[in-house]
Design a protein that fits this description.
By secondary structure, this protein is of the alpha/beta class. It is built from 23 helices and 13 strands.
């Protein structure tokens, strides 16, 4: 349904004269479905529109009565009543408009709430594959800009169209009863409204789209250079002045486009105002002749001109109504695109929930490849106009993606299959170490266990049940994972730890922190467990973040542990602390570890050696050394020196015994 390459938005902003709106009946019905829960408020708002329209029609009639009745007949009592009415009408109308505004805001904010919750809930259910191939900025834009645009369709655009239509119909009806000839003269300027709105309006939209494009470039630069990593990079390479110059160029483009937009906007409204004046002058001219000929009174022509003014404003708005309406409705289309994305990792109807998990894992002929179906990703859309210009790109692990005729997209990797012919079993309580060169598929294998991905072929069994037959809650409750890159929320240490077990007591939190050797560090901080860790835990060192991750998984107390214990970036003392923490939590649990430590390899019940997505060797440390194969080579290059480093670390003061 979404037009490719941003064609819809180019049409919307006058960049493609041949493009046609794609507002379908099905889309409109779906939009109205979001307004259905607010039908009472909508009916109330329509009632207030009718009341305010009726009250707005009274003033010109009062003017006529004052001139033709009270003043001509010198009737003071009538003058007093009419003057009081002129004061009371805006008071009553203002009160009604306040009620209308409250109803309008209630509907709009309600729709925003419903859409955001629906979007967020659906996004949380999307697989990891979706997030590795979608820009975070695009998702944020849809959760914010597009949701607000969709809300605008219901609470502003549709309401404005209804209000203007009612006003035009009611005003024309009254004008026709007053003088049908003048009504025709007043409406004759309508083609001029349409001509100006189309010609100058297109130029205005094109300039506006350009300004938003420049603004998007400026925002993109700010996002890249004003976050922690970007600011650090700028400072380390001494590029502050260079980045300021680039920012000045982008800000200047925004400034110049803003000036041009303001000038064009002024021209637009001056010309529209001139057309209105011409229409009013014609009515005064012809009406004046009719007054001189005693065809009707002075009060009538004054009232008629007042109605004419009330007519031109909604007519002007209605000339742009189709584009405004389509522009608002298309936001719904972009929101629905996310909601309609199929779920790759979905819980089957009647899925089994295991209340007790023993921890037996079995991989049977498992294969996996990072193939991306275009139907499971957002469309490529260049966002131009009232929204930031963002192009949604599909990228995975820094590699390009090409489409084939089937509509699927394959990552350019060194091999087509990330994993192939993977078969092994782990008994409850066993420790299995995964070893292999970088890119062998170790991390991909661990991601299959908690169903971050589903295998392309084969089965993964937990206690004899295919993972796809189990509830997602079963995996979440019984599998704990510590990744190589620890993610922490910009919040307190306590909040980050409680994420694993929200109802944990302070004693439980501290006990988990002691196991992970992080408690003493926390207590040394001024705020203790209430200390803020910074964005992504940036205030903590690498070792401290890893120990936080271990404390979090200890607090969860899972039956199965999946660990990437990489410590190549840590000092020897931090590594020794983490090693001791892991040695306390692994016993009695089924553990799958991407091993980077000699101690883990020596303690493993089974070592699986992966190369190019296949298990090429398996056995214990001694058995694998005897083979003199890939493992023996890895041992010599990666692990032989660790015995000396570990001994040195354990000899330092404060190291665990």
């Amino acid at each position: 349904m979404m037009m490719k390459g941003g064609g819809w938005f180019r049409y919307m902003h006058g960049l493609d004269e041949n493009a046609k709106p794609n507002v379908t009946r099905r889309l409109l019905l779906r939009v109205l479905a979001y307004a259905r829960p607010y039908h009472i408020q909508i009916m109330g708002m329509l009632g207030t529109i009718l009341v305010t329209t009726f009250l707005g029609l009274l003033n010109p009639l009062i003017f006529r009565e004052i001139i033709d009745g009270a003043l001509v007949k010198k009737d003071l009592s009538r003058l007093h009543v009419l003057a009081l009415a002129m004061v009371m009408i805006p008071i009553v109308s203002g009160g009604v408009r306040i009620v209308q505004r409250k109803l309008n805001v209630s509907i709009g904010e309600g729709v925003i709430y419903d859409l955001r919750v629906a979007l967020y809930h659906h996004l949380q259910q999307m697989s990891l594959r979706f997030f590795t191939n979608t820009k975070t900025g695009e998702l944020m834009s849809r959760l914010n800009n597009d949701v607000v645009g969709a809300q605008n369709a219901i609470s502003n655009t549709i309401v404005s169209i209804i209000t203007n239509v009612i006003t035009v119909i009611a005003t024309l009806a009254v004008m026709l009863t007053l003088e049908w000839r003048l009504t025709i003269l007043g409406v004759l300027v309508l083609p001029a409204f349409i001509l100006i709105a189309r010609r100058l309006g297109k130029r205005l939209k094109a300039v506006a789209s350009g300004q938003m494009g420049y603004n998007a470039q400026m925002n993109a630069m700010m996002n890249e250079t004003l976050n922690i990593s970007g600011a650090l990079l700028v400072k380390l390479f001494g590029r502050i002045e260079n980045e300021v110059e680039h920012f000045e160029e982008r800000a200047a483009d925004v400034r110049d486009a803003g000036i041009e937009r303001a000038v064009l906007g002024s021209q637009f409204f001056v010309l529209i105002g001139l057309v209105s004046v011409i229409g009013t002058a014609i009515v005064y001219w012809v009406g004046g002749i009719l007054v001189i000929e005693d065809a009707f009174t002075i009060g009538t022509i004054v009232a008629f001109v007042s109605y004419l003014t009330q007519l031109y404003s909604p007519l002007q708005a209605l000339t742009n109504a189709p584009v405004d309406f389509a522009q608002s409705i298309v936001s719904f289309e972009r929101v629905f695109e996310i909601i309609d994305l199929p779920l790759e990792i979905e819980e089957q109807p009647g899925a089994i929930h295991l209340s007790t998990v023993r921890g037996r894992l079995e991989f049977s002929d498992v294969a996996f490849r990072y193939e991306i179906d275009s139907s499971q990703l957002l469309s490529d859309v260049e966002r131009i106009g009232k929204f930031d210009s963002i192009t949604a790109t599909r990228s995975g692990r820094g590699q390009s993606i090409n489409g084939d005729k089937s509509g699927a997209f394959k990552l350019h990797q060194a091999r087509e299959m990330a994993l192939e012919d993977i078969s092994f079993s782990i008994r409850p309580g066993q420790l299995v170490a995964l070893v292999g060169p970088s890119g062998a598929g170790k991390t991909t294998l661990t991601y299959l266990i908690p169903r971050l991905y589903d295998p392309t072929a084969g089965q993964i069994l937990l206690d004899g049940h295919d993972l796809r037959e189990l509830t997602l809650g079963t995996m979440a409750e019984n599998i704990g994972m510590v990744t190589q890159e620890t993610y922490l929320f910009h919040d307190t240490i306590r909040t980050n730890l409680l994420y694993a077990k929200p109802d944990a007591t302070q004693e439980e939190v501290e006990a988990a922190a002691r196991v992970a050797h992080i408690h003493d560090f926390v207590m040394g901080l001024d705020e203790g467990y209430d200390a803020i860790v910074g964005e992504r835990g940036y205030r903590l060192s690498g070792g401290e973040k890893q120990r936080m991750a271990i404390a979090r998984v200890v607090l969860k107390d899972p039956r199965i542990l999946v660990l990437d214990e990489a410590t190549s970036h840590l000092d020897s003392q931090s590594e020794a602390l983490i090693q001791d923490a892991l040695s306390q939590i692994m016993p009695g649990r089924t553990s799958i570890v991407i091993a980077h430590r000699l101690s883990t390899i020596l303690a493993a019940d089974q070592i699986l050696v992966l190369d190019r997505g296949r298990i090429v060797e398996r056995g214990t440390h001694g058995e694998l050394l005897a083979l003199e194969g890939l493992y023996a080579g890895l041992y010599e290059t990666q692990f032989s020196q660790q015995r000396e480093w570990s001994a040195a670390a354990l000899s330092q003061p404060g190291s665990p015994n």
